[in-house]
Amino acid sequence: MARILIFGGHGKVALLLEPLLAAHGHTVTAVIRNAEHEAEVAATGAQPLVADIETLDLGQLENVIAGNDVVVWSAGAGGGDPSRTYAVDRDAAIRSMEAALAAGVLRYVMVSWIGSRADHGIEPDASFFPYADAKWAADAHLAGSALDWTILAPGTLTLDPPTGRIALDPEDGGAVARADVAAVIAATIADDTTIGRTIRFGGGVEVIGHAVAG
Description:
There is one protein chain. The strands form 2 sheets. The chain has a 9-stranded mixed β-sheet, with helices on both faces. Helix 1 packs across helix 6 and helix 3 crosses helix 4. It is built from 7 helices and 11 strands. The radius of gyration is 16 Å and the shape is globular. The two termini are 23 Å apart. Strand 2, helix 2 (38-42) and strand 3 (47-50) form a beta-alpha-beta unit. By secondary structure, it is α/β, with parallel strands linked by helices. The longest helix has 22 residues, at 82-103.
């Protein structure tokens, strides 16, 4: 069983992931910004850890990560303020990667988005551009690192019930239930063949475990 640290531990996907991991016997720590969310996170079986990842420096992040086996980045600024989007989705994410290396915690799973590519096609004056730009910068840094990384890139997230099935590289927007994204993360952690891969997916008919095994 592994010790798993989740950044963005109160996010909609993370709250669905935490009980999956706890049910498999993993020790789960969920980093959250708001202490008012501690009880909700603890109810999932995870241990809440209150810390503001936007302001933690490299050494502080290293202390948070040290002693774990896996880092899951599921944090984000949530759009809106471009400067905060860059601060969290790009800068804090990259700091967490460097901190994981410094702490000797090599397994790192990034929750990204299906369009995260150098040629994402979002115009610079579009409101979505800072997010697209920040996520691509973080993903590119991770892919060039010495970490044992996996980038998970789901399509449009829904609140539909889980299906347990996905499609790789969908041609449409890749709408997928958040519960299935959580299951993909759990399956990825359990399968080392996912290391060094970017997995783009949406809802579909292939069983998740088979799909991520490539």
